[in-house]
Write the structure tokens for this entry.
Amino acid sequence: MSPALLFAILIGYFALLLAVAWATSRNANNDSFFIGNKSSNWMLVAFGMVGTTLSGVTFVSVPGAVGVDGFGYAQIVIGYVIGYIAVAYVLLPLYYRLQLTSIYHYLDVRLGRRAYQSGAGFFIVSRLLGATARLYLVVNILQAIILDSLGVPFWLSTLVVLGMILLYTYKGGVKTIVWTDTLQTSAMLFGLFACVWILLGELNMSVPESLNQMQSQGLARIFTHDLDSPNFWLKQIIAGALITITMTGMDQEMMQKTISVKTLKDSQKNMLTLTAVLVVVLLSFLFLGGLLYLYAPIAGVTASGDKIFPAVVMGHLPAALQVVFLIALISALFPSADGAITALTSSTCIDLLGIKRRTDLTEAAKESLRRRVHLGFAALFLFLVLGFKAADNPSMIGLILKLAAYTYGPLLGLFAFGMLTRRTLTDRLVPYITIGAPILCALLEYNQEHLLGSYRLGLELLMVNGILVFAGLFAISQKEKTGTAAVTV
């Protein structure tokens, strides 16, 4: 299919997003931007969050990783289920009881201002790195299949995509994103199942036949029983649970949408619905990966990893499916980037700049400040995406999970200390603990061959990081003073 036609489809899809943004952002204010006026429909939030959780990395990298890891990602999915249940019944009741706009305000109430700012700071770093890595992956694929042939340089492609995202999130924020994410999730899931259906037809196999073929070629293996391996099943399940608790339950972007639902009960429905849908979708992505690796040798495709999905679809499947793939890929791009920029803006304005408590600013001045921060993050996104382009990592999902182990570990330690103890902290020392723990983890990972022998660290590094932070906080803490009420679960 002509790159020019594919580009026209891209522009048409974006025009649809702008129409939705215009309809949902009329009369929007800062409360609309930050928490959707606490009036979001839980079903829309749950469905839209599927797209935010998956992103372009899941769409491309999870199927691509099947060639090396088989269905091993399913071990992490089991952990996800445990993690989502913990978020629904442990963290959400706490956030609703305190009526939070920023979830990191809990750290302020319970542990002190430095803990609060440290938590918000690590969220900002985490979301910046994770979201820009996801954005890079999808823009890089769009560049390869459309924009290179049109002579558009990578930096300009990224700038235009970010400009598109700014246009439809600049005013409405969460109020708009709840609706645009629903639209985009629908398109992404349609693309997933259309690709599965077409590939089954191309292979002339039923679902059971294809699974048998995958099993015979070692593509359908799930559990790893080697204790020393980074993919050992227990490590993966525990890591999956902790990844969900931190990257969803302690992440302002994800919780910003969840707590925009009016009641706790509906918010919990949102989380459990998200869990059920997500399990089905992630297992479907693994199945799609198996189909891609069965089809690739037949079609003469030698690509693997992140490149196999676009190589098979754009080079060997019908034109109609190429259009579906493009729309699904774009739909996977926008939910992870638009929500991230909005959440980063919210956290910076509320947690670091104190926009909610500042009485020296008028509402118009606060809105102007929020918009300047929004533009600033768009510029940071551009810079970091160009950095990922220079690095050119072959599998972005592995990189993103590794980054999460370092940047979400301090959040895990901070929240765990606040919720599991009733001790008070020496507030000024908290930043040293939260920065020191990831540095120790990096040293441990770098020297693991000498320190751990044949054992290899995997995603459990997130847990190690959290434990180090918890231990450090305990070392700088004291027993709660009589008459002081700690805010615990």
In short: The first strand starts at residue 424 and ends at 425. The chain is about 75% helix and 0% strand. Residues 264-299 form the longest helix (36 residues).
